[in-house]
Write a structure and sequence with these properties.
- The chain is elongated, with a radius of gyration of 27 Å.
- By secondary structure, the protein is an alpha+beta fold.
- The protein folds into three domains: 99 residues, no CATH class; 255 residues, Zn peptidases (Aminopeptidase); 122 residues, Alpha-Beta Plaits (2-Layer Sandwich), CATH 3.30.70.360.
- The chain contains ten helices and 25 strands.
- It is 25% helix and 30% strand.
- The protein starts with a strand and ends with a strand.
- Strands 4, 5, 6, 9, 10, 11, 17, 18 and 19 form a nine-stranded mixed β-sheet that branches. A five-stranded antiparallel β-sheet has the order 13-14-15-12-16, covered by helices on one side. The protein has a four-stranded mixed β-sheet with strand order 1-2-23-22, with no helix packed on it.
- Helix 1 runs antiparallel to helix 4, helix 6 crosses helix 7 and helix 8 crosses helix 10.
Length: 493
C-alpha cells in the first residue's frame, strides 16, 4: 500500500494491489481538483440572476438574435474582455433561414499554460418565448404572462457562460486559453453550429455546452436526425363526374403510412439491438371536396443514435411510398409521381465516458457536493455539430424545465450551481491529451485509475497496475490556483 497526502487531513490517493481487478481506464497523466469542504465556489449571485433576467427579456427568436448578441458583447466588454477579442462569423449568410447576425465568438489568451477550454450556449429561443417577461417567485423564474414560454432555453446557458468569464476576469483567476461561443439558430435545426466558422475557435481541447436542466447531468451522446420531404403528385379529376380518371395523392400517402405503422417503422422503432424513432409531422394537400386530390406534401423525420439504423429507417420510408404509388392507377393506367428528398440535419455523436472533458466536468460537479450523471439525449444539440467540427463538447444543464411551453421555468439554485461549475471549468488547467506522451517512448502504460468523491468533499483516487504487484508514483509538481476554492496538481505515471 502506498499513500500520498496533500495535507495532514486530506488523502489524495492510495495504491493497493487489492484494487487490481477494478478497471476504470488507462491513463498517463491525471489532473485532480480537490474541493475545499469549508467553502463553496463563490460567485456574485445577484449579478448572475440579474444577467439571466435581462437576457430573457430581450426578444430574439431564431434568425433574430442580434439584440441578444449586442447585449452579450456589451456585457463582455464591461467584464474586461478586449473588444478585439470579440468577433462574429457569417453563419447566418450560409443558413437557409438567413438571419440578422452570425455566431458570437470570443478568444481570450490564457494566464497559465494548460489545455484550452471552450464554453458555449445558443442565443435563440422558440417563437413562443419571444417577448417573454420574466418574473421571479422565490427560487423559480417563470414567464409573467400565461401565453408565453420563458426563454430560459437557452438564455440561461448564455448567462452561465457570461457569468463564468466575468467572475474569472474580475477576480483575476488564473485560466488557460478560453474560447466562448454563442450560437444562432439552434432551435431550427442547429444551423448556427452547423455553419460555424471553426477556424475562429483556436485549439480548445476541453469543450462544454450549457443547454438543459440538471447541472449535474452530463450529456455525452445525442441522436442523429434526417428530415424527409415527400411530395406525391397525383392526377386531378372531378370527384363526381369522372372519379375514375383521377389518382388521389392522399390515398397513396395513406397506404404508405399505414404500411409503415403496421410494420413498425413509424413511432418507436426497435429491431433487435437497434433503436430509433420516426414521425410524420406535417401533411398538406387538397383544396376542395369535389376534386380528386392532386398533390400531397409530407414532412417526416427519422432519428437514431446509430447512423446505419437511421439510414435503414429512411430506406423503409422510401420503400413504403414507392410501393404505395404502384398500388393505385386511374382508368388510363396512370400512376402518381413521387418526389422523396432526404436532408440529414445532424449526425449522432458519442463522447466516451472516460474522455478528458467528461472527467474534468465530473470533477467540477463533484466539488460542489453534487453527483454527476452521464446520459445520452434523444434530441439534437449544438454539440452534434461541434463533434463534426472536431470539438466534441459535453452538454451540461442550467436549471431549465418545461421548455418550449407556457409552463417553462428556471430553477434559480440549479442555475447558480451551473454558474459555479462553469467558473471551475473556465479557471482551472486540466488533463490534456497533448501533454500525456510517455517519457519512455515505446513503453505501454499499464496504469489504471478510479476516482470518486469522499464525504468531506475531497477526491479519492486509486491508481494501480494489474501487471505488477508493486507501484511507484512520482508527483512532479503541485500547486494551488485559489486556496479558497480548490487546489490542483499533476501526476505523471
Amino acid at each position: 500500500m502506498i499513500a500520498v497526502w496533500l495535507s495532514d487531513t486530506t488523502e489524495v490517493f492510495r495504491i493497493s494491489k487489492n484494487d487490481a481487478g477494478r478497471k476504470f481506464g488507462r491513463i498517463r497523466t491525471m489532473f485532480l481538483t480537490m474541493s475545499n469542504p469549508e467553502s463553496r465556489i463563490k460567485i456574485n449571485e445577484s449579478a448572475a440572476i440579474r444577467t439571466v433576467m435581462d437576457l430573457i427579456a430581450i426578444p430574439g427568436g431564431s434568425g433574430s438574435e442580434s439584440g441578444v448578441a449586442i447585449n452579450l458583447k456589451q456585457q463582455l466588454e464591461k467584464s474586461g474582455v478586449p473588444s478585439n477579442a470579440i468577433r462574429f462569423d457569417n453563419a447566418h449568410r450560409k443558413s437557409p433561414a438567413g438571419g440578422d447576425c452570425g455566431n458570437l465568438i470570443v478568444r481570450l489568451k490564457g494566464r497559465v499554460k494548460g489545455p484550452g477550454r471552450l464554453l458555449m450556449a445558443h442565443m435563440d429561443t422558440v417563437p413562443l418565448a419571444v417577448n417573454s417577461v420574466p418574473a421571479r417567485e422565490g427560487d423559480i423564474i417563470r414567464p409573467k404572462s400565461h401565453s408565453t414560454a420563458l426563454g430560459g432555453d437557452n438564455r440561461a446557458g448564455c448567462a452561465v457562460v457570461l457569468t463564468a468569464v466575468r467572475e474569472v476576469l474580475q477576480r483575476n483567476l488564473p485560466h488557460p486559453p478560453l474560447t466562448l461561443v454563442f450560437t444562432v439558430q439552434e432551435e431550427i435545426g442547429l444551423r448556427g453550429a452547423r455553419f460555424l466558422d471553426s477556424s475562429k475557435l483556436g485549439q480548445p481541447e476541453l469543450c462544454f455546452n450549457w443547454d438543459g436542466s440538471d447541472p449535474a447531468r452530463l450529456i455525452n451522446a445525442a441522436v442523429g436526425a434526417t428530415n424527409l420531404s415527400i411530395t406525391i403528385q397525383g392526377v386531378a379529376s372531378h370527384a363526381g363526374a369522372h372519379p375514375e380518371r383521377g389518382v388521389n395523392a392522399g390515398v397513396v400517402a395513406a397506404l404508405a403510412l399505414a404500411r409503415l405503422q403496421q410494420e413498425g417503422w413509424h413511432g418507436l422503432v426497435l429491431r433487435g439491438k437497434n433503436r430509433g424513432a420516426s414521425n410524420l409531422g406535417e401533411i398538406r394537400g387538397g383544396e376542395a371536396t369535389n376534386v380528386v386530390m392532386p398533390e400531397v406534401q409530407l414532412q417526416a423525420e427519422a432519428r437514431s443514435h446509430q447512423p446505419a439504423f437511421r439510414k435503414r429507417i429512411v430506406r423503409e420510408y422510401r420503400r413504403a411510398f414507392e410501393w404505395a404509388v404502384r398500388q393505385i392507377a386511374n382508368d388510363s393506367n396512370c400512376q402518381a409521381q413521387l418526389c422523396f428528398e432526404e436532408d440529414t440535419r445532424y449526425e449522432a455523436f458519442r463522447i466516451p465516458a472516460h474522455s478528458p472533458c467528461i472527467q474534468v466536468a465530473e470533477a467540477a460537479i463533484s466539488s460542489l457536493g453534487l453527483t454527476p450523471e452521464v446520459r445520452n439525449c434523444d434530441g439534437g444539440l449544438d454539440a452534434n455539430w461541434m463533434a463534426r467540427h472536431g470539438f466534441p463538447a459535453v452538454t451540461l444543464g442550467c436549471g431549465q424545465y418545461g421548455i418550449h411551453t407556457v409552463d417553462e421555468t428556471l430553477n434559480v439554485p440549479q442555475f447558480l450551481d451551473a454558474c459555479r461549475i462553469a467558473v471551475i471549468l473556465a479557471s482551472t488547467t486540466g488533463w490534456s491529451p497533448r501533454q500525456t506522451a510517455s517519457r519512455q517512448k515505446g513503453v505501454r502504460n499499464p496504469w489504471k485509475t478510479r476516482v470518486w468523491n469522499l464525504p468531506n468533499g475531497s477526491f479519492h483516487l486509486k491508481i494501480w497496475s494489474p501487471l505488477s504487484a508493486t507501484s511507484n508514483v512520482s508527483v512532479i509538481s503541485r500547486g494551488c490556483f485559489d486556496p479558497s476554492q480548490a487546489c490542483s496538481f499533476w501526476i505523471w505515471l
